[in-house]
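Thread: Voltage-gated potassium channel, structure

OP (GT): Posting the sequence first so everyone is looking at the same thing. Length is 225 residues per the record. Can we get the structure tokens written out before standup tomorrow? I want them in the notebook alongside the other entries.
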Amino acid sequence: MLIRGVGRAVGDIFYQRCFYLFLMLMAFIAVVSFIEPTPVGRITIAGANAFLIVATVASVGRTTLSFVLALVLAVPALVYQWVALRSGDLHALIVSRWIAVALYATAIGYLMRYVFQREVMTADKLFGAASMYLLIGIFWAFLYAMVDSYHPGSFTLGGQTTTPDFFDFVYFSFTVLTSTGFGDFAPLGRQARGICTVEQIVGSLFVAILIARLAGVYPPGVKAQ
């Protein structure tokens, strides 16, 4: 009985893996929002990102190929992130972020394939769609961080050119994704503005396509004669 109960519980966890990814994404955004950019804060953010990477691998790994691909990207991302924290090496930090960008792009692709399959729309798929939307925001936050690494001064914060921390990029990314409008954070460089434009388009198209998908799942009933 105990073995059967444990097996059923594990099965439920992996069946609702998109729900747990959604919770991890919300927790990551909340943690990043309240952590100051101190050495301890950077370690905390790195730890939260590590948990997010693990949750992403678990969510994407529905087949052997997808699991191996996600794992191949996740391991070096965590290793380079750890090296960057220990040594303060900027090159290691940039490499870890590039690998994280590749991992999140892969996760978005697999989640898109899963959510838009021509099957019954389940609760797990709805959480998959929500997770995909949040992952798009995190993905672009890493892109903005990479742009600022290669082109310093690409963003203005409070009317002044400065070097933002990662939370600033997360905040800006979701501001752009949801078409809220620019506030105290705005892009200056051409590269930053170009990536920002693409994210605005992706955010608008995602909502429209998801609504169309849901409308296709629940077609109108046949009128009575």
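GT: Both are above now. Quick notes for whoever picks this up: The longest helix spans residues 123-150. The longest strand covers residues 155-157.
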